[in-house]
């Protein structure tokens, strides 16, 4: 069976994220069943917007006014 690497958020960071806020896993890729498809991701965008999504707030987008 093929495997994939996953990076999962383990806990919400306080301040800058460090390795301890993530789980680094290698898991089996399930075989697609009837009516399912398996896709391969080639590119993943990780940008500053994602930092706001890691916070535990109702509205994670914080805009700074100057």
UniProtKB/TrEMBL annotation:
Domain of life, source organism: Bacteria
Parts of the chain that traverse the membrane: none
InterPro entries: ADH_N_2 (IPR041694), GroES-like_sf (IPR011032)
Every Oxidoreductase N-terminal domain range: 5-61
Protein name: Oxidoreductase N-terminal domain-containing protein
Provenance organism: Bacillus safensis
């Amino acid at each position: 069976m093929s495997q994939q690497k996953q990076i999962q958020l383990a806990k919400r960071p306080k301040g800058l994220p460090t390795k301890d806020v993530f789980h680094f896993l290698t898991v089996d890729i399930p075989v697609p069943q009837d009516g399912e498809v398996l896709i391969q991701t080639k590119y993943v965008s990780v940008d500053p917007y994602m930092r706001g999504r890691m916070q535990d707030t109702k509205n994670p987008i914080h805009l700074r006014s100057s």
